[in-house]
Amino acid sequence: MGEERMSSNVGFRSPEEWERLAKERLEQGPFEYIQSGSGAEETLEANLAGLRNWKIVPRVLRDVSTLDVQSTIIGVQSNLPVALAPVGFQTIIHPEGELAAARAAAAKGIPYTVSTVSSYSMEQIAEVMGKGARFFQLYWPNDDEIALSFVKRAEKSGYSAILITVDTPLLGLREQDKQNQYFPLKNGHGLGNYESDPVFRTKANLETKEKSEVISEVASRLFNPTLTWEKVRWLRTQTKLPIVIKGIVHPDDARLAVENGIDGVVVSNHGGRQLDGSISSMDALEDMVKAVKGDIPIIFDGGIRRGVDIVKALALGADSVLIGRLYAYALIDGQVGVEKAITQLKDEFQTALALTGETKLIDLKKTMLLKR
Ligand SMILES: Cc1cc2nc3c(=O)[nH]c(=O)nc-3n(C[C@H](O)[C@H](O)[C@H](O)COP(=O)(O)O)c2cc1C
Ligand SMILES: CCCCCCC(=O)C(=O)O
């Protein structure tokens, strides 16, 4: 491992350095769209603090020469207990957007989650991924036939699970974006899945529309504040793919997920971009674990920046984690950048695991953590 680690130091970039470079290279609108949270950004900061506040109490003299970090995430194999989170509009970062990030995930053997508002279609992304594991994230439109069409297309193009994001009945109040008057959709990003959808095309009469009209048609269908568990139960009857609910932090919602036949939850506050003042992901995790651990897989996101953060989330009971901004910033260097970020995260995670005194994911336990 020594020689491999020396060579991986070439071109090393810390998460902070990726963020700094992204700020330098992107225009203010796109950069702040990625970086910012909602409101006063209390929850954005709380996600980071929530992880920082847990300290590891490491053990020693336990032969940590052989590590096993292989994982299963919603039924698919992964080289790490990590998947790339759905991040919409990736062409605001790099012209190859989702294609580059998805290729990187496939090359590194971890799952990639395609956002409903990806700039390339789910079929285009599937094609570049080959056998790479992929999930489809559903922003349920205000038209169930379009929602079902997305899910059927995901089935056909080899997606292994549907993640329904439920923390976005409407967009959080993001002050920087308001100041910048910036929302990527308005500039024509994030249309990949809508523009290619046969049901949407017919309903919106797309053949006769200018780009600006297409954008308005998508914008008018994107949000669905009427969504309830009843609709989720209906979707359960329409697909055999595992369904995961993304964006819950209340243990009662986790129980409801189990009762409604859901196959996993993502404990998430959307990276602090929705309800500002909501509980940090790490503070929510303990009660979510008490509510559903062992019933369905628990995925965690919000604030993961380094390998040691993954150790903490898994020790507190998560089965795996998603990373968002960490890879989004690295996407400024396209596929190479994202691959570099994943390689580094793996190195950090393995190092943190060994220095904690453990070799296997299953041995990460809450007893090795103290909250300070
Ligand atoms: C720029 C950006 C775009 C995002 N787009 C989506 C999206 O399309 N769908 C979704 O479910 N979550 C989206 N998220 C939230 C992420 O999936 C994830 O929950 C969050 O980024 C995790 O926090 P982290 O960035 O601290 O890792 C987005 C986050 C960012 C930063
Ligand atoms: C319901 C569509 C909202 C798209 C916003 C993308 C996103 O999740 C984010 O910016 O955060």
TrEMBL record:
The keyword Ligase is assigned to this record: no
Domain FMN hydroxy acid dehydrogenase, first and last residues per copy: 7-372
An example Gene Ontology molecular-function term: FMN binding
Transmembrane spans: none
Enzyme Commission designation: 1.1.3.15
Reactions the enzyme catalyzes: a (2S)-2-hydroxycarboxylate + O2 = a 2-oxocarboxylate + H2O2; 2-hydroxyoctanoate + O2 = 2-oxooctanoate + H2O2; 2-hydroxyoctadecanoate + O2 = 2-oxooctadecanoate + H2O2; mandelate + O2 = phenylglyoxylate + H2O2
Top-level taxonomic group: Bacteria
UniProt-annotated binding residues for glyoxylate: 33, 139, 174, 270, 273
Any Pfam family matching the protein: FMN_dh
Record-linked PROSITE patterns: FMN_HYDROXY_ACID_DH_1, FMN_HYDROXY_ACID_DH_2
The protein's enzyme class: oxidoreductase
Chain residues that bind FMN: 86-88, 115, 137, 165, 246, 268, 301-305, 324-325
Active site: 270 (proton acceptor)
Keywords from the named record: Flavoprotein, FMN, Oxidoreductase
Cofactor requirements of the protein: FMN
Family: Belongs to the FMN-dependent alpha-hydroxy acid dehydrogenase family.
Record protein name field: L-lactate oxidase
Organism of provenance: Halalkalibacter wakoensis JCM 9140
